[in-house]
Amino acid sequence: MQVQLQVPVLIFAQSGRYLAQSATQAGHTVWVADCFGDIDTLNIAERWQKLPSLHTLTNAHLLELLTTFANGQECQLVCGGGIEKNFPILSQLPTNINYIGNNSDTIKKIKMPQLFFSLLSRHSLPYPSTQLFQPEAQTGWLFKQSFGLGGTHITRLDREYSAQEGYFQQHITGISASILFLADGNKTQVIAINKQLVSDNQAIPFQLAAIETPFEISQPNHYLLTTAIDSITKETGLKGLNSLDFILDKHDQLFILEVNPRPSASIELVDHELIFQQHIQACRGTLPSETRATPSHYAGLYYLYAPQTVTIPLNMVWPLQSHDQPHAGTVIEIHQPICTIMVTELDQQRCRQKQHLLSLEIMQQLTKND
Prior knowledge:
This protein is α+β, with helices and mostly antiparallel strands. It folds into three domains: 9-100, Rossmann fold, CATH 3.40.50; 108-284, 2-Layer Sandwich (D-amino Acid Aminotransferase, Chain A, domain 1); 298-367. Helices cover 25% and strands 29% of the residues. The chain has helices at 17-25, 39-42, 59-70, 104-111, 113-122, 219-236, 272-283, 348-367; strands spanning 5-12, 28-34, 47-50, 75-79, 97-99, 130-131, 141-145, 154-156, 166-170, 175-184, 188-198, 208-213, 239-248, 254-260, 298-305, 310-311, 322-323, 331-332, 337-345. Strands 14-13-10-11-12-15-19-17 form an eight-stranded antiparallel sheet. The chain has a five-stranded parallel sheet with strand order 3-2-1-4-5, sandwiched between helices. Helix 1 (17-25) packs across helix 7. It is globular, with a radius of gyration of 20 Å. It starts with a strand and ends with a helix. The model has no long low-confidence stretch (mean pLDDT 93).
């Protein structure tokens, strides 16, 4: 029987399900503030707070929401995807909310493009050509919002953009990937290197479609990545779980794209009970004493998006491998996520075959009454 730890964990994220599950498996009572309130989130959350669309959420509104949600009770705040936009509130929290994660100064150094890319330059770390003003030629350039999620913040350069909202970066084609790591403010420990796949949706061409692990890279590139996360951590004070996104071009040259200074979705591909507690301990300055063994299996986290507007039926039967399950009657607009699918198999081919079959099973239920 799992012993419940006394102080609840308050999860803030666009989707808080995977953090809530890993915290629950580690023995914590969880409160969740997220945008969805999916079935599997509400099954484990002692409290749930509906969040508005994160791009509309002001610092003042979020601070008020979290303060009201905690209701004066002591809790530990752990943030997932979405805190980057509102990071200034982390230094303004009431005393009953004990924040565990990167502080506002660290997040600023990571997510403000002029600071982050200057840091990379100082350490001679490679990244695509990047600038804060719109280039004359549109071809071969992207516009990236500074505080986006899941690739939806990236667009091809096809109109005038405001540099106040983001930055302009050379478009490099290749294999997208990430490195998940723990940091204690000075040292780092690699957890996994993962491959990222984007959707074939032309309306949102860089939308994240899948994360797969393990992803093998060359020894020189592995050394470059570990050097990068060490240098970035020492200069910014990164703590806890973080991930660094990168791309490998056709010549296997590595370019750093960005750092996510909080637990990313790829932690779902790692043992939950261990990884959540390791995040807490790393934020307190202690890294695990043993390095993680190479996994003996292949794992994939896949995002199923709606090809058209669909409504979740009353008799929906979700496969065991599906997560972030919306409630019956929920309307999912075109290109929005229906759910995620987690598959573990012997190799990549079997993973993708299983994911395809599970996606068909779900879509057949959603479209049979159309």
